[in-house]
């Protein structure tokens, strides 16, 4: 059995190596199953299995009645250009649409491409749940007590310990535990703004941030943002001169939906610029651990010397969104955020916080992150190849180096809200572009999640989207 398994891998290895060396070129026919079976002295079924592997990897393709050919490398679509949002502050009105989209996607989609949910089938999630279950059986009255702000000390210690990997050296006293990253964002926004104030955001921006801005009666100023480098610093500088901004909300590491990563030099520049202007930076760091190229990048807060950066994050994208474990490291606003947490929800859920603390104190989280990163990176590659194959030419797609989301620009005539409805009717959820803008921009964009659906379903979803986009042009 083992020998047979090795043999079919040898078949695949030989073809892969010939392709790598250029001895077999894209579009060239490879030996038939029978020829290969004779050449390597293995059974026909072994060759069929080996070729199956190569088909899965898209090294070769099968042409009906003709045989197997080396697959031509797909030309991946180019990313969209820098965004050009409205140049003045606007009141935000995305909440209704956001609620509709989130509810419809959750209940109606066989192929979930529309959410920002991570995969939760990793062994680490089971480990975390086991810890929770064993805690629940422990007769410890402290586990049924209020977990008062700033929150579970052991969890704050773990957050502070791990923050050093982001270049953020803080004590547990500087951490406030929250109900997910969204609550951290809301509390930080409330700490530094009053209704009617203006907040600058990247564009496109996470619709949760837009909803928070809307619910707090704030105005949003969208700043042009490049899908690779992030928010334009010259544009932000101009905005700071022109408008009385009270905060800037950004995701310097793998933003939602663009997936950009700011360089360290630009992060340092950003922090210095906002420090000079005395405008706080609310940094959403929720995707930073999902870097495809190894260790997580430094947070912008690593350059913060005055407590002007309020860092927000959670375990939702890397481990388990259902546990609602988030936190803020609010710099000089720690006391205000702690107070706001108390007046908003009095305390946090005690059992999940203790379970998360014990989980993070164990040794498995880094290993878990390594498997998530490599799984998502592989998915990103498959997604980009499938997008190239199934979406019509003229679509532009970001090529994220972390996270789980792609931002797709459709031909101008395609209305992404209409596409969203037609795709949902065929079981595919998408997140339409206008959700990500304060001023209703991005009518011909969609955000797609490439981590959640299995590859076969993702391919089916992209095939359906490709058809609908062609119809909608
Ligand atoms: C950028 C960003 N921040 C925060 C969140 C929400 O995090 P949490 O589930 O921890 O509240 C999301 C979820 O989609 C997100 O994309």
List the helices and strands and how they pair.
Elements: H1 2-21, H2 33-40, H3 44-56, E1 60-63, E2 67-70, E3 90-91, H4 95-108, E4 111-112, H5 123-136, H6 153-163, E5 176-179, H7 180-192, E6 198-203, H8 207-215, E7 219-226, E8 230-231, H9 233-242, E9 245-250, H10 264-277, E10 281-284, E11 309-314, E12 325-329, H11 334-345, H12 350-361, H13 365-390, E13 396-397, E14 405-409, H14 416-425, E15 428-429, E16 431-432, E17 445-449, H15 455-472
Parallel strand pairs: 4-15, 6-7, 6-9, 9-10, 10-11
Antiparallel strand pairs: 1-2, 3-7, 5-12, 7-8, 11-12, 13-14, 14-17, 16-17
Helix pairs in contact: 1-3, 2-3, 5-12, 6-12, 7-8, 7-11, 13-15
Pyridoxal-5'-phosphate binds at residues 116, 180-182, 206, 208, 251, 256, 284, 286, 314, 316, 321, 326.
List keywords for this structure.
single chain, 473 residues, alpha/beta, Arc Repressor Mutant, subunit A, Aspartate Aminotransferase, domain 2, 9-stranded mixed β-sheet, 15 helices, globular
What does this structure look like?
By secondary structure, this protein is of the alpha/beta class. Among the domains are: 2-70, Winged helix-like DNA-binding domain superfamily/Winged helix DNA-binding domain (Arc Repressor Mutant, subunit A), CATH 1.10.10; 120-363, Aspartate Aminotransferase, domain 2 (3-Layer(aba) Sandwich), CATH 3.40.640. The protein is 43% helix and 15% strand. The chain contains 15 helices and 17 strands. The protein has helices at residues 2-21, 33-40, 44-56, 95-108, 123-136, 153-163, 180-192, 207-215, 233-242, 264-277, 334-345, 350-361, 365-390, 416-425, 455-472, and strands spanning 60-63, 67-70, 90-91, 111-112, 176-179, 198-203, 219-226, 230-231, 245-250, 281-284, 309-314, 325-329, 396-397, 405-409, 428-429, 431-432, 445-449. The longest helix is centred in the last third of the chain and has 26 residues, at 365-390. The model has no long low-confidence stretch (mean pLDDT 94). Pyridoxal-5'-phosphate binds next to α7.
């Amino acid at each position: 059995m083992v020998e047979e398994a090795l043999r079919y891998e040898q078949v695949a290895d030989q073809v892969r190596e010939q392709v790598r060396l250029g001895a077999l070129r894209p579009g060239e026919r490879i030996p038939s199953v029978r020829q290969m079976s004779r050449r390597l002295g293995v059974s026909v079924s072994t060759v069929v299995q080996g070729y199956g592997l190569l088909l899965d990897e898209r090294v070769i393709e099968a042409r009906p009645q003709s045989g197997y050919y080396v697959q031509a490398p797909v030309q991946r679509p180019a990313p969209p250009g820098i965004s050009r949002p409205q140049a003045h502050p606007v009141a935000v009105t995305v909440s209704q649409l956001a609620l509709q989209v989130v509810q419809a996607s959750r209940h109606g989609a066989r192929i979930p491409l529309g959410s920002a949910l991570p995969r939760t089938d990793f062994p680490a999630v089971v480990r975390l749940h086991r810890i929770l279950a064993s805690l629940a059986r422990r007769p410890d009255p402290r586990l049924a007590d209020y977990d008062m702000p700033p929150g579970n000390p052991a969890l704050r210690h773990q957050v502070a310990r791990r923050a050093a990997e982001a270049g953020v050296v803080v004590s547990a006293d500087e951490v406030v535990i929250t109900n997910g990253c969204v609550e951290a964002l809301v509390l930080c926004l409330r700490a530094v703004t009053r209704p009617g104030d203006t907040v600058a955001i990247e564009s496109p921006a996470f619709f949760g941030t837009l909803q928070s801005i809307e619910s707090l009666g704030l105005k949003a100023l969208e700043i042009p943002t490049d899908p690779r480098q992030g928010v334009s610093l010259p544009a932000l500088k101009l905005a700071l001169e022109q408008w009385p901004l009270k905060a800037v909300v950004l995701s310097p590491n793998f933003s939602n939906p663009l997936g950009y990563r700011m360089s360290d030099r630009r992060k340092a520049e950003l922090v210095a610029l906002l420090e000079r202007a005395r405008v706080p930076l609310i940094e959403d760091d929720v995707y930073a651990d999902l870097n495809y190229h190894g260790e997580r990048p430094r947070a912008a807060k690593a350059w913060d010397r005055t407590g002007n950066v309020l860092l927000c994050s959670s375990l939702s994208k890397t481990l388990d969104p259902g546990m609602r474990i988030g936190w803020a490291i609010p710099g000089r606003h720690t006391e205000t955020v702690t107070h706001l947490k108390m007046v908003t929800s009095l305390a946090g859920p005690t059992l999940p916080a203790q379970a998360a603390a014990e989980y993070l104190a164990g040794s498995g989280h880094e290993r878990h992150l390594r498997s998530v990163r490599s799984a998502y990176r592989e998915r990103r590659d498959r997604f980009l190849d499938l997008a190239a194959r199934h979406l019509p030419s003229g679509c532009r797609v970001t090529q994220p180096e972390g996270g789980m989301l792609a931002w797709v620009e459709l031909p101008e005539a395609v209305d992404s809200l209409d596409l969203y409805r037609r795709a949902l009717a065929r079981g595919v959820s998408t997140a339409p572009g206008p959700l990500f803008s304060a001023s209703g921009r991005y009518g011909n964009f969609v955000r797609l999640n490439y981590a959640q659906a299995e590859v076969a379903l993702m391919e089916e979803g992209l095939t359906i989207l490709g058809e609908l986009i062609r119809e909608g042009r």
